[in-house]
Specification:
The protein is mainly α and about 350 residues long. The strands form two sheets. Strands 1-2-3 form a three-stranded mixed sheet. It has a two-stranded antiparallel ribbon with strand order 4-5. It has helices at about 5-30, 35-60, 75-105, 115-145, 150-155, 160-190, 190-220, 225-240, 275-290; strands at about 245-255, 260-265, 295-300, 330, 335-340. It is about 60% helix and about 10% strand.
Amino acid sequence: MPDENTTRLNVFISLGVNGVETLALGSAAWMTGSVGLRAQTAANAADLAVVAFLLIGVLSSARPADDSHPLGYGRERFFWSLFAALGIFVGGAGLALAGAVDSGLHASTVDHYAIAYFVLATTVALDTFALVVALKPIRSEAAIRGISLRAQARRSTDPAALTVVIGGACAVLGAIAAAAGLVASQLTRSSAPDTAASAFIGLVLLLASIVLLRANRALLSGRGVAISVLREMHSVVAAQPGIVAVPDLFAVVVGPSSLIIEGDVTFAHDLTVADVEQAIIGATAALRARWPSVDYVYLTPVPKARSRRTSRPSKTRLAVAGHASATGRASVAGTPVAVPPMTDRHDASARGGHTA
């Protein structure tokens, strides 16, 4: 997904574009009396609040990890992006649909079409520019992975970038719908097409808010990675010298473009402490080379597969039942298991290569 600087730039561009468009659309809606323009104005006004939430999330999530948040503040972005999705739901979809209902009950005349067309053409151009800029890094990442743009969007772990893209697409589609409604109203001399355009804009925003709410809920609730990706990760760890089995492995999203990987690993019985350490370092390096978003790796030596419901050891220290011998091995339930050295989670040099 886009890096921090790219996401921050896209959010600022979206903020500027929405500010200009809201003023222009509001003026045009007041002069023409168009319900479709009022709906588009409401959508852009809601987008201003949405982008403000995104900006708070982008800035707050960039703080480094500390003792109170040892995995960083990445989920701050998920929280504020959830508010952004709610803003689209209430401010955009709600106002647009309410305006359509009110216009259906109390029809009003539409005038000054030329002004409306000029403003809408300008907003389409601005929104298209912002959308192209926001899509560029996502398209590049999708091309690198050899997947579709839709698949890349579904895998996104940066809700701010996803919200900017979806919001921009809705803005372009909404402006086109508003223009089509005005053209139909001008030709038929009826306000019904303009009202229908407002309802369409509201429904598009409603669908967009539902998509974003689901994406943010999944991230806030500890979403994992795709099964195909998890299988690849499993293969990478199992391929390391000295590792004979990987009974369990899973990855959880802990921030935008940030993953934590944890798993149980069975080592060969004749390994020394140094051998185990190299195996863990090799597994971590291989995972991070294949997936740069992997920030933390915790591998627990086990003699055999165990249930995930089993109480797991502390993440800051290796916890293996038994006592280390002079050869650097430990006994777990009568089975020799090599014990890697203890590593402190807060040591910056060990980030991405911790053991648990």
